[in-house]
Input
Amino acid sequence: MTAIAASGIHHVTLMTRNVQANVDFYVGFLGLGLVKRTGGYEDAEQLHLFYGDRLGSPGSIVTFLVWEDGAPGRVGNGQVAEIALAVPSASIGDWMTRALSHGVPMTGPSQEFGESVLRLKDPDGVIVKLVGADLPAAAPWGSEAIAPRRLRAVTLLTDQPEETAAFVTRFGYRPGPREGNVQRLLSDTDAVDIRDASGYVPGAPGTGTADHVAFRAADVAEVRKHETALSRLNSSPTNFHDRNYFTSLYVREPGGTLIEVATDGPGFAIDEEADRLGERLFVPPGDAGRAEDLKAMLPQFSLPGEPRLPHRDLPFVHRFFTPDQPDGSTVILLHGTGGNEADLMPPVSRIAPHATLLGVRGRSHEEGVLRWFRRFGMTKFDQADIAFEAKAFAAFVEGAVTGYGLDPARLTFLGYSNGANFIAAMMGLHPGVIRRAILLRAMPVLESLPQADLSGTQALMLTGARDPFGQEAPRLEAWLREQGAEVTAHNIDAGHELSPADLSEARQWLETNKGGRNG
Output
């Protein structure tokens, strides 16, 4: 096959578990521009950030899929192991000083292929090399003296180095020099380093690893040429996608690394002004109808210099959603079995549009899904685990109130199913921690309902009329009343699932009780 001319790397995409730390490193420390923020095109509930030069020019782009508090992966064969950014040759000393002052892990400088290289680690452990190479920037951004100009190279780990190298040459690369177990391939603008890692472990996806590297194509016709050529080659299956800002094709090379071929256009300025790139959140066209829900679900962050909440290391993974006009109230959200800390944010943002939302993630796992406590059967629960998690959650609430400056008099706890059950257990085991609660599909899970002073506590219970677990709700309601709680209870024309009636009742109850102050 005759190689189709290409002009180097378009972008490289990696995964992070901490969006704020990621932004602080790539924008605050490295000085890249944030040129686009979107919901993912494969999963709109996953934030996707694009960094690059002033315009997000092909060849300058580093992107991150955000798996907030997601499990770390393992770098190994079949992955991009390192990314390299070209910086002015004279700036390496300045970058060493900068890394030391910012506490960024660093080794070097060393010489690789005749260039000075400073190895850094980002907050997820990704190796980012700063390479002294006076390459031109397509759309300069940041300090002329030290700012990264463009991507210099990526390093692929493979146990099939010859096959991997031959495959990459199809995208316009030619053999360059070799150093040790690394074969360098060159385009007109950058390099791909093929590292022979025979005998090394295979890569495992997760945060701190790369998803893919993309090579440039002039237009859709060139991408289609690649698709035709790869089908004749009988390569791995190819997938063709319209990503709005570029059109692309995915394929795996023989060593396992995922490769994308992406068009240079139309670029990131098609829906934002060029001097305001990265300011707005966009969602894929197919998800436009739930744009507001996605805005509530996707993790928020602050750019350097913008106001931000302090980071607090608390016993439970948690996430805030701050509305445009917060009123000082906070709703703490506890998901149901199999949910996560963001699940309830969209509906609750609709019923309490000015409340700050604090979604919390349960710590128990059952067959790969999240819960708040272990169970032995559908209606038999691990009492010791409930007590242990309740004690930890009480500490979490205390830490959140003091650490984030929350008003304890304006806290409402809203839980669904397993989360509601846990809230009810908390009220019995640690009275006073939760003084206002919305319990959606709750049932008692404590085998012995304790005596607890719940005077001054308000609770809304919404039970599905067709909920198979609903028959236990009256016992929970009676216990709450006996302990002195003020309970509003309704049966909803629904099963165990939530319905619009739940949201309507919850909204009315919140509006009625929002003026009250918890003691």
